[in-house]
Amino acid sequence: MILYAPLPAADWLALFGHFLLLSLLAVGGGLTVAPDINRVLVGKMQLLDEAQFSSSIAIAQASPGPNVLFVAVLGYQAAGLAGALTTLIAMLLPSTTLALAAGRWGHARRQAIGVRAFKAGMAPVVIALLLATAWIMAAETPGRAHLIVTAAAALLAWLTRLHLLLLIAAGAVIGALGWL
Q1: Gap between the Cα atoms of 133 and 120, Å rounded
Q2: What is the C-alpha to C-alpha distance for residues 76 and 156, in angstroms, rounded to an integer?
Q3: Rounded Cα–Cα distance for residues 166 and 169 (Å)
Q4: In angstroms, rounded to a whole number, what is the distance separating the alpha carbons of residues 150 and 167?
Q5: pTM of the full structure
Q6: Is the dihedral of CA 141, 147, 149, 153 positive or negative?
Q7: Are 77 and 6 in contact (CB under 8 A)?
Q8: How many CB atoms lie within 10 A of CB 119?
Q9: pLDDT in tens, 66-114
Q10: Cβ atoms of 40 and 66 closer than 8 Å
Q11: What 3-state DSSP class applies to 35?
Q12: Helix or strand run (H / E) with residue 176
């Protein structure tokens, strides 16, 4: 039993192209372009109705994993497994390619004054964003034991060569045992 109508080749190309473009516009995460995805999938192409669109996003957001996975669920609802692959690949390809190209470019020019200045300037920004996130999470969590564990993990990461995955695993064990 087919739950969706087969798409003509032009629609596959339009779907792929639209998600390619949205990938580069999705600054702040995939959900930032959800209104435009709705405009195309529900309004223009009529591959989904409003209820399917909303439930697809809800299912994807309730599932563990990266936030952008909702495009695969939408693609699956619209055109089956081929739709899921089309939307997900199109959404990930440009941003991934751009990130890899920028990383390679920066690595090849790591001694250039501009690249060194950029890295030096971004370090405090990244640290401030991490601290802001930690502050927000700490403010919403009852008790203060988690602050001690967080500070200890930060000091261990900073002062030792202990692998970060070991610290993450230790935090998971502490949480699973209910110690915090």
Answers
A1: 21
A2: 44
A3: 5
A4: 10
A5: 0.64
A6: positive
A7: no
A8: 12
A9: 888 899 999 999 999 999 999 999 999 998 999 899 999 999 999 999 9
A10: no
A11: helix
A12: helix 164-176
